[in-house]
Design a protein that fits this description.
The protein is an alpha/beta fold. The protein has two domains: about 5-135, 3-Layer(aba) Sandwich (Rossmann fold), CATH 3.40.50; about 145-495, UDP-N-acetylmuramoyl-L-alanine:D-glutamate ligase (3-Layer(aba) Sandwich). It has helices at about 5-20, 35-50, 70-75, 90-100, 115-120, 140-145, 160-165, 170-180, 225-235, 250-260, 300-315, 335-345, 375-385, 390-400, 445-460, 465-480, 490-495; strands spanning about 25-30, 50-60, 85-90, 105, 125-130, 185-190, 190-205, 210-225, 240-245, 265-270, 275-285, 285-295, 320-325, 350-355, 370, 405-410, 415-420, 425-430. The longest helix is centred in the C-terminal third of the chain and has 16 residues, at about 465-480. It starts with a helix and ends with a helix. Mean pLDDT is about 90; it is low at about 135-140. InterPro entries: Cyt_trans-like, PfkB_dom, RfaE_dom_I, Ribokinase-like, Rossmann-like_a/b/a_fold. Catalyzes the ADP transfer from ATP to D-glycero-beta-D-manno-heptose 1-phosphate, yielding ADP-D-glycero-beta-D-manno-heptose. Keywords: Carbohydrate metabolism, Kinase, Multifunctional enzyme, Nucleotidyltransferase, Transferase. GO terms for molecular function: nucleotidyltransferase activity.
Length: about 500
Amino acid sequence: MTASLNDHASRIAALRAEHGSNSKVGMVSGNFNVVHPGHLRLLKFAADCCDILVVAVNADDRLGVLVPAHLRLENIAAISYVDYSFIIEDDLATAIDAIRPDLVVKGKEHQEFHNPERDALAVYGGKLLFSAGDAVFSSIDLIQAESERPTSNFNLKSSANYLNRHNIKGEDFSAILDRFNDLSVLVIGDLIVDEYITCDVLGLSREDPTVVVTPVLEQKFIGGAGIVASHAKGLGAKTSYLTVCGDDHEATDSQKKLEDYGVDVIIARDPSRTTTLKQRFRSAGKTLLRVSKLKQHAIDQVLQDQIFDHFKAMASNLDLLIFSDFNYGVLPQSLVNRISAYCLEKRIPMVADSQSSSQIGNIARFEKMLLLKPTEIEARLAIQDHDIGLVAVAEALAHKCQPEHILLTLGAEGTLIQTTHPDNSKWMTDRLPALCSSPKDPAGAGDAMLVSASLALASGASIWEAAYIGSVASGCQVATVGNRPLSVDEIRHELGVL
């Protein structure tokens, strides 16, 4: 049954209530036989002028209509700027009176003609705006396609030589992934919000040789240890996440998103810090500038005690603890030592990643882990040697902090795997090439590898099997822009074990 105008007005009123009492509703109407760039520019302009964009698609009996209304409505509803759309059976003035938009937007070509919307808006103080349709706006949907997960596959390569060397078969992967559902995992570490601001380039400034851009689309993703926890949940494990962050809307919004992902979230609020926000300004698939808003001081003893108490309350049911450290003060050494000592006593497997910025950070401070996952630079910082070969780097790091396994990530060169020989007499080493040949965004690759390889190890996989699963997960992550939780079905598809 077709919804009435009152039904549409009620739904739009509910949207306004969700956005807050001061939110603005904008409205655009038209035939929209074929959605072309002019429409997209008009809708982008309207969306920038309001909080909620409503589009009324004219019914089939209107002048100039060529395509059935339900098809035109589908096209409009699929456009990312549009918050609500409907087929308008009534005249436009009646619809405006029922919906009471704060503004109505039309193309500037209508400015010199009679506009019946003006009288309807004047009754309650609404405004009529005209868009010039400037060509500085890209299609939002083309931009968003860059960050969408592929619907079929990620076109990852495989490494038959590696699989043959270690006698790994597809059915081995299937059994390992099945066991992810039995795991209970706790992730501890920094919450980071990654914001991608996609821009159109306007040109060079006339005052100085500076590139001038205008933002087109802003997207926020959960990052840091938050995405590690989200990956773990997406891969099937029962997942809890423990962190410290600011008492701000970024933390509140992130908590809701994490809970929507199914993660059990415990946040200790620290009013002395803001939640870490990393902004990337991008254009034409390239990052122009990165801006980080963060605090790096260590949390105080009161917060450390809170984190440790929360950890102890969950420890009895844990199969795996993941330290995801970004060296912004959430995991001071004293807290790491307390948690590690407790885990070693209770035989809870631990894994760690400690991402370093410049000369800050030391992954070797995480001792006796089941797995460490440093980059080459992070490993060299930990051992303070920038000259020796890669295998020697991994061995030196192993001697320093005694992990069972190391995945030394090398970017486009893949991953160096270092593990103890079964008789503990020596180290064994192998290299796995990068499986994604056309990465779009390297951010989050290490997080995806860490969590997937760790879950595999906790499920009884060998380090060779775990490293391969981690490389597949990393390849899936870098094939899109921005962090989104992995799913076990994606990994199965790329491993060919669906």
